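Record 1 of the preview.
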Amino acid sequence: MDRRVTANEGFGSKFDRFLLSIEEGRTLGGLRNVEATEILRRSKETDFGTSERRLTEYALANGCWFDLKDIKGNFKYLGSGAESDVYLDKDGKYVLKVVNYRAFSETPLEFLNNRITVHNSVFPGTAYELVGFTYSDEIGEEGFYFITRQTFIDSKKPRPAQEEIDEYMEKKGFAIHDGTCVIGGYVISDLAPRNFVKDNDGNLYCIDPLIRLKTEK
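->
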């Protein structure tokens, strides 16, 4: 997953290229992302309770169920957002995010599809890798949490201006309006300076956008 893509390297403006990039994004999410997605796809029951149980069984059987205390003991706490607690590994190469999927997703499968796979297809330079799962009654809402890993971009540069972000998205083939763009039935929002990092070479990286299916009113 340790692959950086510059602001000028995108998938272009054509919708068909976006669709072709989806499976690449799923693969960038790692083996756990691929397997967890397939487990939930095959399930006839899609409610969050059943999905969480299936993923818990999978995690326990495959060594990717984590004790939150181990994460807190081995990683540096960086802060919290609306949906996750963020930790930095000892080598400063990755951040771990302990994510409450229910903050912005209706089901675990929606989280896997939208917040990991589609994110990775649009922003491969900051791809999320699914590394496991945990349960917490200590942070945010009590319950089931995803654990993702993302390359840490160490930078002494200030956050980019909104004009720079708009230009970055345009180079990727998007039109951005009020911090939001739409592609292939997906709405990508919260494209604001707080969710972008500029590395020491001046390249922009989107680290935490919101991605949802577009809903018709």
